[in-house]
Amino acid sequence: MPNYLKGRFILTIFIMLCLISLVFYISITNGSFDISVSNVIRTILRINPNEDYDLVIFDFRLPRIVIAGLVGLGLGMAGAVIQGVTRNGLADPGILGINAGAGAAIVAFMFFFQGNMNGTDLLSIMMQPIFGLVGGLLAAAIIFLFAWKNGKLDPQRLILTGIAIGSGFGAFSLYLSLKMKASDFEMATVWISGTIYNANWYYSLSMLPWLIIFIPIIYKKAYSLDLLQLEETSLKSLGMAVEREKSWLLISAVAIVSACVSVSGSIGFVGLMAPHIARRLIGLKHRYILPVSGLLGVLLVMASDFVAKTVFAPAELPVGIVISLIGVPYFLYLLVKTKA
């Protein structure tokens, strides 16, 4: 990579980290109970700890910020992978129905098992992402089965099939949620909209193994993502096992998306916007697109969550709705630009 592009990449990462730090500072100090920076630092470093500050920071704000960051990181990187594998700039885990498939499986888990399991044991912590993975893989398999035409993936069929399958899984989720008790139905409905208002440290624990395992796999295969932008005949002449590489990348992306959906519900458009902005900022090499997409996702979800919990306080919007207010116009802009 030329030095000026490498310098641009480093500068972009630095700016992203500064913006994320700013959002972190605003999120942890502001809210219905404002806390000064000095009190935040003293509380975290355990200097003259205060019970009220401990409760607000460690039980409410910090877990929520961490979950928002992890979800944004996962969705941003997974979106870059899915767009790279499908060679479709409009592809996104939410638009393709992968979110809906993972969400439907987790709603089924909530419907059949949640009341019978202790939410603090290891099995309960890990079960939701596992259900999400199964649902996400099922949705992805169905979508790719119908989108496959003449031995290759048809981008237009992929989008149309994804929307249809996503609608079907969404209807199934709604049907199951209507069968729940009133309190469980309310929780499921808010969760389906995409929210992290009930974030806790157990949710962070449930996500970490999936991110720790699959993000390095994705990053290791960044060069494969670059090659997948070529025609398949060229890839075969290079001796690349195309279907095996696609399978590894897609399974990794679906696993990450499923882990995110398991703790935040269906948050769309992050995986659509972050890779597009990343490519505009630092070019087409996935070695650089992936980390920038992840950081953009962190920034987008953290900032949107702060807006969601403060704009209409004491009422609170699901973060998925706030992101959709940005994502829908952006998607329409890309759609019009693609047709042009």
UniProtKB/TrEMBL annotation:
<feature type="transmembrane region" description="Helical">
    <location>
        <begin position="288"/>
        <end position="308"/>
    </location>
</feature>
<dbReference type="Pfam" id="PF01032">
    <property type="entry name" value="FecCD"/>
</dbReference>
<protein>
    <submittedName>
        <fullName>Iron ABC transporter permease</fullName>
    </submittedName>
</protein>
<feature type="transmembrane region" description="Helical">
    <location>
        <begin position="62"/>
        <end position="82"/>
    </location>
</feature>
<comment type="similarity">
    <text>Belongs to the binding-protein-dependent transport system permease family. FecCD subfamily.</text>
</comment>
<feature type="transmembrane region" description="Helical">
    <location>
        <begin position="158"/>
        <end position="178"/>
    </location>
</feature>
<feature type="transmembrane region" description="Helical">
    <location>
        <begin position="315"/>
        <end position="336"/>
    </location>
</feature>
<feature type="transmembrane region" description="Helical">
    <location>
        <begin position="201"/>
        <end position="219"/>
    </location>
</feature>
<keyword id="KW-0472">Membrane</keyword>
<keyword id="KW-1003">Cell membrane</keyword>
<dbReference type="InterPro" id="IPR000522">
    <property type="entry name" value="ABC_transptr_permease_BtuC"/>
</dbReference>
<feature type="transmembrane region" description="Helical">
    <location>
        <begin position="94"/>
        <end position="113"/>
    </location>
</feature>
<feature type="transmembrane region" description="Helical">
    <location>
        <begin position="248"/>
        <end position="276"/>
    </location>
</feature>
<keyword id="KW-0812">Transmembrane</keyword>
<keyword id="KW-1133">Transmembrane helix</keyword>
<keyword id="KW-0813">Transport</keyword>
<feature type="transmembrane region" description="Helical">
    <location>
        <begin position="9"/>
        <end position="28"/>
    </location>
</feature>
<feature type="transmembrane region" description="Helical">
    <location>
        <begin position="125"/>
        <end position="146"/>
    </location>
</feature>
<dbReference type="InterPro" id="IPR037294">
    <property type="entry name" value="ABC_BtuC-like"/>
</dbReference>
